[in-house]
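Please, structure for the following, as tokens.
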Amino acid sequence: MQTVLGANGPIGEELTRELYRAFTREIRLVGREPAKIHETDQLVKADLTDPEATARAVEGSEVAYLTVGLPMDAQLWERKFPVMMRNVIDACAAHGTRLVFFDNTYMYPGTTTPQTESTGFEPNGRKGRVRARIATMLLDAMSAGSLDAVICRAPEFYGPGRTKSLTNSLVFARIKAGKRPLVPVGAKTARSLIWTPDAGRATALIGNTPGAYGQTWHLPVDPHRRTYAEIIEVAEEVTGRRIGYTVLPLAAFTIGGRFIGPLGEVRELLPRYRGDNLFETAKFTERFPEFPVTSLREGITDILG
């Protein structure tokens, strides 16, 4: 049995599809309102802030994948994420279940220095500090030998379906709706974006590679990073129409955040948009050279074609 904790999000769904396709038909989907993707999926309702419910959700699992997402709300993150991580660590340790944690890069410094698995945590906001805290909780448990675990880390998403990110909502969703895309902070800096189906496939692969545990892995992205200006040029080629864009300066998020909560919540992430965002994945590509990575052009074509 392999269990997806937080199965309702786009990563949980893509992960579940890949587990079923390549590794196992014994899949348990855990969430507040889990829904089947395959007829054989086992559904378990559970609140991961409840230690007993978490233990029951994990029991009998060979591998558990923690892919829970929460709305962009710093208070909510501070209140729930550390409790969830503690409960999942304890449940996996108690049941001898290997843990795969799907993580993001909010704890990394917002600089142009290339990010690798050894990059130190230097969060510049409340949500980044929460992500640093829960990643450190797991790293400490791994170092103590409390459980067998692995961290799969991904940069900003883009992708089909319900994928949520600044790039999806401000750029691709607006282009698809025939609206002018809005580019956060700068159009001339290189972006590292991960295609959500690739993120799910890579997480499933690592979770089923015993030698991958005890480490952190950066999940694969198209190595030919493009700027937003170049991304929109590709969108023009895919759609066959001219697409203008508007750059939203940092001040727009600062002022807008006073009146629109979500704008204020993303402000701490904006330093990574002022310069090149270089998320390095050489470790993964060297270990899994046959893994097919979706190019940005292929992804944009899938979204807009």
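The mean pLDDT is 94. The longest helix spans residues 74-95.
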